[in-house]
């Protein structure tokens, strides 16, 4: 009897323990949930979220730039640890599930996700933002989103990209390059309207890379400059000129004026991933030999590369010059510079106003230590001269391959080995299940 | 028949006649019963043969029996030991040593959280590794490494040869693809942590995660390496859910239950053992047959070659780096003893082992005190405590994207490169690489230092007992807590740290981890016996487990002078990662034993956890099993040469938790222009995530032949894992690359056969052998998401691919035509091992062969050496199917450049003499002559580890993993720390 009693007592106690022991906890310990922004963004969070966007825009730019520069035969990237930069990328045999395809794509869409979460948060916010503050924030975010989409369609071209990705569970359809460019232009115009309603100042900070573009009015100049690039890609030269007018385009201004990514070694910041010291052996960015041989005498833009002590060879590819665009691991990387705007101005005038085009190109030739352009002003001749200047002025900034593609001259890019090929577009990553 | 009857009558008559002489000579026989290891055997049965007169030994193995008739035969028996019969002619002291039975039929095996069952009655194929098998042949490098080849159904594989370990263990195939696939370790009831924690700073320099695979590839030690094998008495292995269902949501990958040594009452025994030895690389790759012409044609460096040859400066840098013979010293001092109330076992072990690379090594000191105290006959308290201090220097190996690891640097090092320091310790820059491997080896630090306490207590209370039933309460608590400090230093003198080389002027990193696991449980165990030998064992219990971890790492760069404190630098990058989890569970189990003929068990575990979407939702894991001992039924002919036949079947379910934090989509922090920012993570959380559920069915039979001279265990299992936790690829345009999903089902099926034989069993010559054979095949039965690649570097180099209808461990890649095809499978075709123990007089010889047949690796070390022009087989022609192109060129031009991954997927079969040991026990009569009674036992011997290795695999060792132990990522090789063989000599003295 006694035993049964004690068993009963113990069983009752156990049952009580079990029933009463509700667990608590189960929190995400290692960071803020994304819904904390999208559900209701606060004033303090807005600055941090936009810093996140500006930071994320830098992720993957080395892969992005290296792949584009190898395609454009601007330079080679040899690394002793990953042979695919001298293999797949130069050969043009691109696997749609390998980092050179997936990293740039994923990084740009991650930034777009950062932006979309903030846009959602601005719709839902209960903070005391004024309508102008919200409009200004939207204008900045939509401009940056357009920039990211442009980088994507630059790569994937007619393989297509998704423009509408606000709902992760219900992604928009793929559109080809021309539809993507239309959507990007529309987005830039929407953003321009928002910036116009954005009052006199931002309620958040931008990095020093945006110095001079840190009010709604001045940021609009960046927005218009981007539109000029997009319209040039679409061949709408009148629209290019209109957009340039409202941008920071300055024929007599500093060629390097513009918008930049910034880097540092502090904390969670990242170093400039495109910097490599001179004369390295394991990892090198070496200019394509044609960059050195094709240069016009006296063109000081050749100093973007530096003769190596020893050539670096990699499976039949040889580099004699190191790429020397950046001299430290915290140098800024351009997002958009006045030099490109001058080239866009020249391009837009090439057919309608060749004299003005030559004048613009001469600004760059003079800056490069070259005599004024003395060649023919036929459209074909001017196209050659434009592409020459774009090649040397924008070296290593991800333009050459796109330029040769849009002028339908990809086949002119040199292949050093019989196995090599320049592709016209990067495949859509396998995981998009397109 | 008639004859027999007559004899019987005669004997009866004789007995009758002698009765008057001996009838009243009642006398007492007493003594102590111990086992091979001199540990007491409590609860042993002592019966006077042919009578019902019997007794049992107490907790300390002491017995006392009153014998009426002499001469008499006493039968000593106990679970897990061979019975022994001894004749006694009068009252005396009789100490008895029971030997563990060869077949282990009588040993007890855990069957519940607080109960055990005789192996004879067990319905599962539970593997047991004894102390003698674990560390008795040769001292293992780590506890987990010592399990390889010793039982069926496991793949035990070293991730690298770096000192301090790094192992992966998988029972019965892959049980989880992205969840935890390593077993749960329980030491004396304490849930012991087995994490691998990456050290900050390594990836910052190697940038391994920045390229083709986002994992860090640092190959940290898994922390079970801290447990000292010398302290272990016994290990039981529950390989799958059918045996491990009682461990619920933590049991699916199997459970390794470790019991440590205990003391026994009586004379205090002290044992001192010392081992000395060295280790050596298993296989050097060698060099190309360099000549001036070859150096000229390969690199245009014929003149440099000639000059170096002239100056006698050609150097084999592979041997320079890996050619060290690391000294090993193991010292173990243990004492055990006590009285009838309290017993203890205390041990201190010091291991010191240098690696085969200079400045690498492992030091460990482990101190243990196990105390058992009987308050009275009904209450017993056991306390197990263990303190461990270890330090591992692991060098800098594996993949990188910066040319900095020693392994990668070596691939581009040519014999005529001059890399040696001058008299002042200044190292020349490497002419073809961003790091000088000798300088990196000599100057960098990669150290993991651990201080760890493991404490466990068990309280056994006999609440009630009578003739037919008893009730016991078992309460347990345990805590495993450690602090690990990982120190990584890359001084500014290193070639790749210098600012003129684009370096950051020195990196110093400290990673501090505090980990605490605590578990509490209480059980009631009720036994009820009927008069017709049916017994019921009922147990109910509740458990609570708490896990807490906090890792903070600081990586400083641009260091001041030669300072290494992390504040002595220009830049600091701080990371913190926390884990807090609490699980609650209950458990009920009923076992019915019908006359040892039929033994059936039903059980249920319920679990909830803060790691689940609904933290108070219970997940239930049932189990059921039945064993039938046909030989115990009446129809069995006892004279049959088949003396035992058991049929068994067991079914159980168990789970695997989602990785901590999988419920949430959490912003990562970032910094830009001095402003903190938040960015979306790579992986999207899933608030609906639930544990994986494994359902395992196991059936088999056990045979005993020729009075147990031969034993056979045959097991077939089918293990299905549903709601598989997959780190599914999402459309990356969603902003996320991966998302946690319960999205598939996989299956493992396999066969395990163990054959034991007592080949020779004579007084001074015995030979026991165990032959194991096992095989597993897996299949992805269902996938709710598209197939995806994981755990490799993409299809041009060979990668794993999770694909419906295919083997879970398939390796795919592009073939010579550019088509994506299956190129291999990491799963071995089969494995087999042969264990032998031969005792001749005072000598004993033991050895263990292990053959893994099949199973493929992705070998990228050779490819990197090809790019450096240094592969040993560069000029051989063996992989081109047409026999035209030298290997080095083929792998580059026809391999990677042609988008053909075929040359990189290699067969990773091996045959190893894993362990061998030869020992001589000095006969005790000599000891008495020489030392009196001071020294009771002296043993000397030699042993070795991995002394013979046969494999075709074209690198250091087919046992390797660039990505460490989890999931599928085994067998991908990128310039690892090579594995080593060990030679040891031993002396052990008992006082």
Explain this structure to me?
The complex is a heterodimer of chains A (434) and B (991). Chain A has one domain: Serine Threonine Protein Phosphatase 5, Tetratricopeptide repeat. Chain A is built from 15 helices and eight strands. Chain A has helices at residues 2-20, 35-38, 43-56, 61-71, 88-91, 99-124, 131-156, 177-196, 216-234, 237-245, 289-293, 338-349, 354-367, 379-393, 400-406; strands spanning 75-79, 161-162, 174-175, 258-261, 283-287, 305-314, 317-323, 333-337. In chain A, a hairpin with a 2-residue loop joins strand 6 and strand 7. The radius of gyration of chain A is 26 Å and the shape is globular. Chain B starts with a helix and ends with a strand. By secondary structure, chain B is mostly beta strands. The longest helix of chain B is centred in the first third of the chain and has 21 residues, at 2-22. In chain B, the strands form ten sheets. Chain B has a 22-stranded antiparallel barrel. In chain B, strands 11-16-17-14-15 form a five-stranded mixed beta sheet. In chain B, strands 1, 4, 7 and 8 form a four-stranded mixed beta sheet that branches. Chains A and B meet through helix 1, helix 2, helix 3, helix 6 and strand 2 of A and strand 25, strand 26, strand 27, strand 31 and strand 32 of B. Chain A: It comes from Euzebyella marina.
